[in-house]
Amino acid sequence: VVVVVVVIFSLFEMASAKIFCTLIVAVLFGAGASQDECEGTYSETAGGLGMISVPARCAKLNEHMVLKDGYFSGPPPAPGVHKSCKTFFDECGMASFQITCQSYIALSVSGEIFSPNKQDDSFYVRTDNGEFGDWHTGISNEWRNRTIVIGTGATRFTLYLLMNEGEAHTIDFAEREDDTKLRTLRVFSPKTDELKKCKFGFPKSTSTVTTTTNTNVQQLKRQIATLEGDETLKLAIEGLENELEMTNEKLKITENSLKMLRKEFNDFKSYVEPKTNSLSISLQNLEADVKVVLSAFTASNTILQETALHSSEGASCAGDCSPSVNSDNLDIVVKSPQGSAMMDTKKCGMVDLCDLTKVAAQISDALQEINKNAININNTEP
Q: Which pLDDT score, from 0 to 100, does residue 368 have?
């Protein structure tokens, strides 16, 4: 090499010699595009979406993933053996793509795949070192573009990348079935100018996948505002709007139910309160009437005791009580030794039986009031 360089310097001018030497060194020691210089091919779909196609050679492969004829897949199994990776370690292959964009943009993602049969038609896929999910590509005996849909049944979802300004995001394809092949990764966006600025590949300065997660709320708000008009988010936004509308309807129904319950409660309160007040008054009156009866019975007991005392002393004087009282109208008949005439307390010094008559009248009135209040209480509805 040194001899050749010396000869060249003697034959050509200095600038030409330097260029030629560079070519010689490249041929002798090998040269090629490094991963950070890997660029995808930009084009537009029939629907006007921008699309960048990134070849499989731009991916970083582990030692178990094989790159051959422009596609990658798991290593070929032994003849007659079908290998299916149940984990993402051991001898299973993995390929990683890194994407960096210069603005907030949402990307839908697909892959150009070859999946010849039902035993070779799936990858494990994840983003930003998250959890792997199954991507069932469907059977295809020719190269076809397939949207990346993760999972099955009710939990399946279409893969989108929400790109932040200047941040790198990764997509990893791990071997699930050994003969499923991927030749091209494709990303789409209606924002064609922003899409053209996205770069693919890993920097020279690192040999590992570097990912970052945006946790800044303000950046997230700006990103949502910027992405609001993206075609890739329309379905998601429409779904959220429908859910919000259903939630509002449920809230209206709940609000109407609460109004009805409040009205029923107020009606019940208006019905019960007067009856409760009436019952309370009746109970208070009953209590007062009972006290009157007790007081009257106490007074009558005292009168009877004093009457019996004077009768036992043998009083013999007689007279009339004004106003006169017919003893037959009383439950208690008091007779003097002289006969059935009432005794004159002024002449005999005894208790006036007129007082006893008044007490009996008070007791009768009180008992009538008690009976009346008892009827009111009994007629009060529960």
A: 81
Contact 161, 189 (CB under 8 A): no
- In this structure, the number of other CB atoms found within 10 A of the CB of residue 314 comes to 8
Is residue 191 classed as helix, strand or coil in its secondary structure?
coil
Length of the chain: 382
Could you give the C-alpha distances from 309 to 306, 321, 342, 362, 376, in angstroms and in order? 5, 19, 16, 24, 43
Does position 261 have pLDDT exceeding 70, yes or no?
Answer: yes
| pLDDT tens profile 53-97 | 999 999 999 988 999 999 999 877 666 666 667 655 556 889 999
Token couple for 147: 């949207």
Give pLDDT tens digits for 148-190: 999 988 888 999 999 988 899 999 999 888 889 999 999 999 9
Show the DSSP H helices in the chain as ranges.
Answer: 2-11, 14-29, 192-196, 217-227, 234-312, 345-348, 353-379
Kindly tell me the burial class for residue 358, based on how many C-beta atoms sit within 10 Å of its own C-beta (0-12, 13-18, 19 or more). Answer: middle
Task: Give the pair of three-digit tokens for residue 39.
Answer: 């660029």
- Statement: the pTM of the whole predicted model exceeds 0.85: no
DSSP annotation of 177 reads B
Neighbours of 341 (CB within 10 A): 14
Give the integer Cα–Cα distance in Å for 109 and 161: 8
Using only the alpha carbons of the chain, give its radius of gyration: 54
User: 349 in helix, strand or coil?
Assistant: coil
Q: At what angle do helices 14-29 and 2-11 cross, to 10 degrees?
A: 150
State how far the alpha carbon of 198 is from the alpha carbons of 104, 166, 188, in Å: 11, 9, 11
User: Counting Cβ atoms within 10 Å, is residue 28 exposed (0-12), middle (13-18) or buried (19+)?
Assistant: exposed
| CA–CA gap between residue 134 and residue 176 (Å, rounded) | 8
First to last CA, the chain: 116
Separation of alpha carbons 239 and 158, rounded Å: 14
Complete DSSP assignment for 108-149: EEEEEEEE-BTTB-EEEEEETT---EEEE---EEEEEEEE-E
Q: Please give the full DSSP string across 30-97, using - where no structure is assigned.
A: -----GGG--PEEEE-TTS-EEEEEEGGGSEE-TT-EEETTEEEPPP-STT---B-SSSSTT--EEEE
